[in-house]
Amino acid sequence: MFKGKPVEIRTAPHLKRPQGVDEIMRNVVYALLPIAGFSVWQFGISSLALIVTTTLVAMLTERLFSHLSGRGNTLKDWSVVITGILLALTLPPGFPLWMAAVAAFVAVALGKALFGGLGYNVMNPALVGRAFVQAAFPVAITTWTPAFAPGRFTEFVPSTLTLPFMKPNPVGEWIVGLNIDGFTGATPLAMQKFQHIFVSTTDLFLGGVVGSSGEAPALLILLGGLYLAARRMLDWRIPVGVFAGAAAVVLPLWLYDSFTYPSPLFVWFSGGLMLGAWFMASDMIASPVTPLGAFVYGALIGVLTVVIRLFGGLSEGVMYAILLANAASPLIASITQPRVYGQARRQGGRA
To answer: Is the dihedral of CA 124, 48, 94, 184 positive or negative?
Structure first.
């Protein structure tokens, strides 16, 4: 008679190491910290204040709505911290803090709480907040500041501390006072689109260019994404699909006319595509769960991003591409469901 521990037999799936939501979200925060840290090193205390503001306001908004809905304290799952950090990384470093606070409130209230909280949001909350302020404050969200400006750790960008509903202090005069030569205020995407000037892909990969707080360096974003993929905390098919979709559109154009159209590497490393592919498109709630669906979803984002960048009125299209793909995610998941084992394929609309 067997006297040892009983053998327990279960059906699949066999989970060797279950991961809770808080563990996954906490690791995403860890992956984002080097990117946020480089942003502070690049743009100084204005970037730090921006990250702190969006994160704190997002947390306070989350706490308010969780209390009103009777769901208790939901801050411990770390998801709202991700929303706050990601939102800051999509905004200009000198974005007025009161506008950033509005963006954070909208991100959590409309992008998350309105749908019932974590697990029910249909779109990435950070991008919902970003889309709102892009429509509400179009001038402020397209005003850029130079990277590695002298005195960035001792003084704020003038527009940072603008009072609510007041006109932001002119950044141009501040830049002139810094004696920075050759600063045009144009991002690499804007220079490529409107002037056909291409920034070196090495500069894009290693950082130091004008743009949103989290646009560069692509290297840090890539390493953070690979860390999460290696720990199976995101579906690698989504970023791979994004890069493949973007390359599929831009590669033939670049081969046809390299003066007008950017290379696939430029498309991958410029703007917010790298950050969006690894940290926003991969949102577990707003993306398909089927393997084929994840790749198709990512490819759709890549295609839409390039189409908007090259043929639309805006120089950047990652935000709208991800939000549109979020909306299409349920349909993509539905049509890419794998066939149940043992079930006959559908023929003529009948099983």
So the answer is: negative
